Amino acid sequence: MQDGIAEKKISVLKNDLDQELAYNEQQVKKAEELLIRLPESIEKVKILLKVSDWYEASYNNPKTLQKAIQYAEEALLISQTLHSNIYSGKCYLQLSMVQELRNNNSMIEVNARKAIEKLTKTNQTNDLGEAWVMVWSAKMRTNAPIAERLDPIFIAASIFEKSRNNKRSGDCYKEISELYFSISDFHNSLNFLKKAIFFYKAANLKESDIYPISSRLNIIYETEKKSMDIIKLKNKTLLQQSKLKNEVFLRNSMVTFVLLLLIILGLLYKSFVFKKKTNKVLEKQQNEINKKNSILQKLVVEKEWLLREIHHRVKNNLHMVVGLLASQSEFLKNEEAVEAINSSQNRIHAMSLIHQKLYQSENLSIIDMPSYIFELAEYLKDSFEIRKSIRFVMDIDSFNLPLSHSIPIGLIFNEAVTNAIKYAFPDHKNGVITISLKTNDNKNYALIIQDNGIGLLDDFDPYNSPSLGIKLMSGLSDDIRGKFQILSENGTKITLEFTINESNLH
């Protein structure tokens, strides 16, 4: 029963406060009593803004302005909770106006800009225009450059024109006129004041209100006229002075020209003699340089040939080692020894492929990674005879790496893929090994090798493993200062992240 009576009282109070006009002091007291019981809603936001507006309009001391800010901030929080761009924008605009009364110049523009951000998404053109006026006010108060003061007030005028708010359009153009007057641009000042009067008349302002602006128009007109007369007199004086200076200048120029001509002729003759001697010396030096360049070019060609020959022989020697290991494995009966030799063969092949790539390419110091990774993967498929049972999915960016990083990455790739082939798929069916080597800036790189196999054992510690392959991958990662990880993630996932810069190239 009591709840029903309370609801009726709230309803009566809301009806009493639901009006477009500003509140009086009695209505503000009623509103403050009502706000405590009202739930969070747009209606509560409207009442909060009106109460804030009353405290703003009746400011007598800093306390009333502080109350105006508190009510506006409370309205803002509710508007943000309700995701209302319209009332969030209105709240920011109210905060900007109160900060103007508090002379807090920095916060005027901060709140006005936030109001613009919200109101731009709505159809509240008048409020949007007022927000731009507050930006202009902040610029005026901080004595910003004239261009920064003109921009926001021009935007505000344009917005008010679109909303057909003739009074505010006139106000904006009047302020624009004053700005141009302050920099003595009387022509623009006159034009924009005429435009302001046009909008004031369209807004049906009284002649008594327009008269002071018309008087200002006459003042600007007379000022512009006097300014133009002064400019004409100055131009006339400058023209006469210029004529006198030109006559003196012509006389002096003729004398100077004759003297300069004689000096130039003397210098030209001296330069001709000097140039003739210099050309002989330069011709002799150029011949010597050409001979040295020819010798250096031959040395470069010989060096490149020797490097190619070295890489070719290293590749052949590594292949010979692979062949010797293969011969040795035929005489071994211990399966672990045979497997160790096969692993060593794969590792040596990964290195020999690098040297093969180097002597076949034009650049003898970098490796084309997509081609290298693809060929190494093909070799491992053939080596383990898995072409039908395990599928490879590759996503490799096109880039080159130096030799210092290519060999460690090739060996890590070899170990990771070999382990996946040997241990991830006990039944050798439906196996997928995903290989990714990506870079976003040719500086930071990530190698990811992941399989969809059985994953790691529960008690397996990848960072304290006796496995030679894992120790080798970890050690090679440290050599290139990379971050190495082994995770069990729907299979096994090996990640290597590394960076290439001048400090870790050597």
Automatic annotation (TrEMBL):
Name of this chain's protein: histidine kinase
Sequence ranges assigned to domain Histidine kinase in this UniProt record: 309-502
GO terms assigned for molecular function: kinase activity
Database matches in SMART domains: HATPase_c
PANTHER family in UniProt: ETHYLENE RESPONSE SENSOR PROTEIN, TWO-COMPONENT SYSTEM SENSOR PROTEIN
Transmembrane regions: 249-269
Class of enzymatic activity (EC top level): transferase
SUPFAM superfamilies per record: ATPase domain of HSP90 chaperone/DNA topoisomerase II/histidine kinase (SSF55874)
InterPro entries tied to this protein: HATPase_C_sf, HATPase_dom, His_kinase_dom, Sig_transdc_His_kin_sub2_dim/P, TPR-like_helical_dom_sf
Keyword Cytoplasm in record: no
Entry's EC annotation: 2.7.13.3
Keywords: ATP-binding, Kinase, Membrane, Nucleotide-binding, Phosphoprotein, Transferase, Transmembrane, Transmembrane helix
Pfam entry (one): HATPase_c
Catalytic reactions of this protein: ATP + protein L-histidine = ADP + protein N-phospho-L-histidine
